């Protein structure tokens, strides 16, 4: 199977409260969902009809069985997912206190987690090389053996050897609890940045990688490092994408926020769909922005990922351009 999108890294069981607007200690019931940013991105792309797969590890336990079953339910290839016996599957709790307070509580991640036990020797480098888009996050670089596996995977996809239409995307997903310092994260990202064609992050995440500055200054530094598309999320002002010849800003799509945690992953999967479809950058950004907004208006992450019809309906409702061939796309 040649993947249109292959992601690598974090997977977990998300335990989200059914009680909205209260602290975790006051929650009385929860729901269980597939989680972990790279895994959610693969689910999001699969919802848009893309052949998506994940490289990750779970524990050899019931939660690991559940996660693999969920991936298959969402039509995400789990052939490159395996279990490790030493560590339990990671679990993430959160409180849901809209519009902006969604604290996360990580269990089974310290000192390590199964998805940080991906070993370079286990990688299917042909699958990595052949994927239309290869997506990783900064978190995968935070410790060994995952760090070396990520580095070798990126080295197998040298930027100059990519075919037309292929992309290597780095989600600048910096989470300070997984790192000794920002300097350590910056040093490790520098090892794979020469192979990256698209970088996506907010102001803080970009500052970890290329230093503080305006969004345009940060995007320009990413472009100077060889990235072809720099995407900087602007918070309430929307999102900007910049190339060496183009600057595009997509205004926010206002919705009533229920849970903002999965919006970025929905954005990522839809962004990949737009790139694979060959749309103009402005349409890719608007489509991804709308997809993210839809998930922000829902409770869960993976289960909440929208279909193309839902995204195009929201765009039309808000008076924005609807990309042509939204459901057909192209095949690499």
Descriptive report:
It contains 10 helices and 14 strands. By secondary structure, it is an alpha/beta fold. The strands form 2 sheets. Strands 1, 4, 5, 6, 9, 10, 11, 12, 13 and 14 form a 10-stranded mixed sheet that branches. Strands 3-2-7-8 form a 4-stranded mixed sheet.
Question: What are the defining features of this structure?
Answer:
alpha/beta; 33% helix; 10 helices; 332 residues
Instruction: Determine the strand fraction and express it as a percent band.
Output: 15-25%
Number of strands: 14
N-to-C span:
12 Å
Helix and strand content put the structural class at alpha/beta
Helix tally equals 10
Averaging pLDDT over every residue, what do you get? Answer: 95
The largest sheet is: 10 strands, mixed
**Dominant shape:** globular
What integer value in Å does the Rg equal?
A: 18 Å
Along the chain, the helix and strand elements come as EEEHEHEEEEHEHEHEHHEEEHHH
Share of helix among residues? 25-40%
Regions with little confidence, pLDDT below 50 for 5+ residues:
326-332
């Amino acid at each position: 199977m040649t993947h249109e999108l292959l992601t690598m890294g974090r997977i977990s069981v998300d335990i989200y409260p059914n009680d909205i607007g209260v602290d975790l200690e006051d929650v009385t019931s929860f729901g269980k969902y597939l989680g972990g940013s790279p895994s959610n991105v693969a689910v999001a792309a699969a919802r848009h009809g893309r052949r998506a797969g994940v490289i990750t590890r779970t524990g050899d336990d019931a939660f690991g069985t559940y996660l693999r079953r969920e991936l298959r339910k969402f039509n995400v290839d789990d052939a490159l997912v395996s279990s490790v016996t030493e560590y339990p599957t990671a679990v993430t709790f959160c409180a849901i206190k809209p519009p902006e307070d969604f604290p996360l509580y990580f269990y089974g991640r310290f000192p390590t987690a199964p998805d940080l036990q991906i070993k370079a020797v286990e990688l299917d480098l042909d699958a990595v090389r052949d994927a239309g888009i290869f997506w990783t996050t900064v978190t995968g670089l935070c410790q060994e053996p995952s760090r070396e596996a990520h580095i070798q995977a990126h080295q197998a996809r040298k930027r100059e050897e990519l075919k037309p239409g292929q992309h290597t995307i780095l989600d600048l997903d910096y989470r300070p609890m997984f790192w000794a310092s920002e300097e350590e994260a910056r040093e490790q990202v520098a090892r794979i940045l020469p192979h990256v064609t698209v970088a996506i992050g907010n102001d803080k995440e970009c500052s970890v990688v290329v230093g503080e500055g305006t969004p345009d200054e940060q995007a320009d530094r990413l472009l100077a490092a060889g990235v072809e598309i720099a995407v900087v999320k602007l918070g309430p002002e929307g999102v900007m994408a910049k190339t060496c010849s183009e600057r595009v800003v997509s205004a926010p799509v206002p919705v009533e926020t229920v849970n903002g945690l999965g919006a970025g992953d929905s954005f990522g999967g839809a962004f990949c769909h737009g790139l694979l479809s060959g749309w103009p950058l402005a349409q890719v950004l608007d489509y991804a922005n709308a997809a993210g907004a839809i998930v922000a208006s829902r409770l869960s992450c993976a289960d909440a990922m929208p279909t193309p019809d839902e995204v195009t309906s929201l765009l039309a409702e808000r008076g924005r351009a609807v990309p042509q061939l939204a459901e057909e796309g192209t095949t690499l």
